[in-house]
Structure formats: C-alpha cells, structure tokens
Design brief:
The complex is a heterodimer of chains A (226) and B (204). With 226 residues, chain A is of the alpha+beta class. Chain A is 28% helix and 16% strand. Helix content of chain B is 43%, strand content 12%. Chain B is built from 10 helices and 4 strands. In chain B, the strands form 2 sheets. Chain B has a two-stranded parallel sheet with strand order 1-4. In chain B, strands 2-3 form a two-stranded parallel ribbon. Classes of the chains: A alpha+beta (226), B alpha/beta (204).
Chain lengths: 226, 204
C-alpha cells in the first residue's frame, strides 16, 4: 500500500493556482521560520534527508491533507526531534533552559553560507558496473520498501509494474529505502527511465507524451525484447 | 517491523502553525540547539540572495552561445561551480532543452524537490496537491491553467524528480527576442519558464 504523499496521477484535485508576480518567497513570516528551523536542526546530524522526507510522509493522512506545506515541515520536525530522542514532547509547551549535549553542533550564523553552498551530494563510487545501458527496456517492480513494511521508497505508485526505457545512467547514488531507516547508504546505480503516457494512463492526452522518472536499479528488472 | 517515525508527538503542539513554529523554536533555542541569528541568515539567503535570477543568468547565456549551451547540457556542474551556483538541493543538476518537438515540464510528485540554487524556494503552486497529482497525467490541461498552449505536434515530457537529480528547463527563444542581449534576456526568462509551465515572454 502507498502513503498519502504518493499522489502522482490521482484523480479529484482541482485547478492549479499559478503565482502572481507580487507573491513573496515566504507568504507568512512563520513560513520562513519553519524552513529555517528545519534546515538549522539538520546540522545536529541526528537524521538525514531521507529520514526527514519519511517523517513528513508518515504524518497521519488526515493531517497531511489538512496541513499547509510548512505546517507539514514543522510537524514532521517535531516528530523527528522526539523520536530521535533529541528533546522530549514535554519541552514543546514547557521549554527547559539547560544546555543540550548536542549544542556544540549548533549551526552558527557565520557558517550558514558555507553549509548551504556545500550541499550534500548523494553520488557514490561503487564497484559493480550498471546492469542497464541507455536504450535498454526495463520494467519496474512494486512500489514498496522491501526492508520495512510501510517504509520509505522513491518509486511512485503510478509507474509501478510498468515498462519503460533507460534514458540516462546517473552512476550510483545513496539508496533512500535503506538510508531512511538507519540501514546504511547502500548506493545503487540510478537511471532516468522514460515511460510512454499510453503505458501509464487509461486515456492519455497524447499517447506519445513521455514521463521521465529517476529510478534506482533494484526497483527495475530487465525486459527481454523478443 | 515498527518504525519510530509513526509516533505523532506533533499533536501536542499548538494547532495554529504560527504558534507551533514559535513553540518549537523556543524549545530548541533554550537547549542551545539552534541560534536565532543563524535562522535569520538562512531566511535572508533564500529571501534576498538565491532566486530565479541565478537560473535566468545561465539560461540567457545558453540561448545566446551555442558552445555554452552544449557545455551546460553535457556537463552542467562545472559551469554552475564557476558561477557559484552550487549548493543545497542543487548537488546534481540536469538541464533539459525544449525544442519544437518536445516540451519539458518538471515536477516532484512525492514531495517538492526543486533546484534551489538556481530557482530559490519553490512557489506554492509547485508544492500543491493539484500540480503534483495532475501534471503527470494531464500536462496540457495543467499548462492551460498557466495560460500556455503548445503547438499541436509538440510532445510533452514530464520529469518527476524522484531522486536527487534536479532539472532545469532550457526554454525556446521566440524569434521576437533574437536581438536581445544577455541582460535583456535574463530579465524575461521567468521562473515558470525554467520549470516548464511558461514560455519565454509570457506575462508570468
């Protein structure tokens, strides 16, 4: 079963509201605080990007649908902080003034520019050559985490069990399905796979339109062209 | 196997998101885990320093210089490093070129992945359920909501950023702007044109 965040292709959503030229980067001040608190706590190194994505995905569907974007961020961050044992939920409403053992890792203003411009590349060297080459036909497996029931995966439901073609080989990248669950980076080759709209949808706007999705090697199996 | 993230302490926070952020920020500042001055610095960076101007600078150059365009498509990271456009959520960039045959559109159906160092923080619509759910299935209908109609024979290619590769669209330069210099061009290359939901010169 998929989770609420995996919404590609879903029916029922209304019209998109394009932005106005006057829209600010942050519509409300608290949006910017939510983003900044989330980024700053990353420096405590108690979780990685895949874990924070999964924390948002694990919000109850009722909350995921009702919360605005940055409300999801801040709520997921609260859960991460408590579940990773950084602070207790009691401190949310009754803060304690006591220096935390992790405070030596606190992100300082002087280090912000360096941290943001450095980023965190996910490419890794691996010994194994890629199993697939550009032009190979492939088929996706089911969109589930194979290690943890209900765990994090980056294969969207709308392309599961579908046939496509390798477009780009990106080399090996950290594998989210393990990385989100403290099971290590386990880097795998990553590919851009193209799917014809006619392979994915009952009534596509144009059957020759394509969808390009970035897919890790173990999400794929070869297709033998007769 | 149970997983820890399913514990939902967030419901103990105030339900008003503004108060929710405030409560969390206060708790973390008191423990010495975050520095309010660092938060201000992060906000200033994304509010005032990093935005679509970065992307437009690169795209304008590519539209005027064939060799630059080829290099940008073949090995973007080298060029972006030279311009100082590397960073968080832009560690692995790929530039995809629009042609009369193919129109590219970028989305992240699973969350909100976006090339931050080139375009800044994504707009609300990019993170909305409406865009994430629909653009993969009915891209032309979505484009029409942005006021964009493609030529009949143009195929759409939607890029769903499911990994850490971030996509930037290189739009077509309409003939009426052929005499523009780099600076003039960078003024009319909109953020949405580099996501694929606008064309160069559209009011957006």
């Amino acid at each position: 079963m998929s989770r609420v965040h995996d919404m590609g292709g879903r029916f029922g959503d209304g019209a998109i509201q394009p932005a106005s030229i006057n829209d600010k980067t942050f519509k409300e001040k608290w949006h910017s605080r939510a983003l900044a608190v989330t980024l700053a706590t990353g420096s405590l190194r108690q979780w990685n990007l895949d874990m924070s994505r999964h924390a948002r995905e694990c919000l109850p569907p009722k909350d995921y649908c009702a919360f605005s974007y940055y409300d999801k961020w801040i709520s997921a961050l609260a859960n991460l902080l408590v579940n990773k044992g950084v602070i207790s939920a009691d401190e949310f409403l009754d803060p304690i003034r006591k220096t935390h053992p992790l405070s030596s890792r606190k992100l300082l203003a002087a280090d912000v520019a360096g941290v943001l411009s450095k980023g965190a590349p996910t490419s890794r060297s691996v010994v194994d050559p890629p199993k697939f080459l550009v032009g190979h036909r492939v088929k996706t497996r089911r969109a589930v985490n194979k290690f943890i029931s209900g765990g994090h995966t980056r294969l969207p439901k709308y392309v599961e069990k579908c046939e496509g073609k390798i477009e780009i080989c990106h080399g090996a990248h950290v594998f989210p399905d393990t990385h989100a669950h403290n099971l290590g980076e386990q880097p795998e080759h990553l590919y851009t796979v193209s799917f014809l709209a006619s392979e994915l949808w009952e009534s596509p706007e144009n059957p020759s339109d394509t969808l390009c999705v970035d897919i890790w090697e173990s999400y794929l199996e070869p297709v033998n062209v007769p | 196997m149970p997983h820890d993230v399913e514990k939902h302490s967030h419901s103990l926070l105030p339900s008003d998101p503004e108060l929710k952020v405030k409560a969390l920020e206060t708790a973390l500042v008191k423990r010495g885990l975050i520095d309010p001055a660092a938060l201000d610095e992060i906000i200033d960076t994304y509010q005032n320093k990093i935005g679509p101007k970065n992307g437009a600078t690169i795209i304008a150059k590519a539209l005027l210089d064939k060799n630059f365009k080829k290099a940008l498509i073949d090995d973007p990271m080298q060029i972006l490093e030279k311009h100082g456009f590397l960073g968080r959520q832009g560690e692995h960039i790929k530039v995809v070129e629009n042609t009369p045959e193919i129109h590219n559109i970028v989305v992240c159906t699973l969350c909100s992945c976006y090339p931050w160092p080139l375009l800044g923080i994504p707009p609300t619509w990019y993170k909305s359920d409406e865009y994430r759910s629909r653009v993969v299935r009915e891209p032309r209908k979505c484009l029409s909501e942005f006021g964009v109609t493609l030529p009949k024979n143009t195929k759409v290619r939607v890029w769903d950023s499911t990994a850490e590769i971030r996509y930037l669209v290189l739009p077509i330069l309409p003939d009426r702007y052929k005499d523009f210099d780099e600076e003039q061009l960078s003024e009319i290359i909109s953020r949405d044109a580099m996501i694929g939901t606008a064309l160069i010169g559209d009011p957006s």
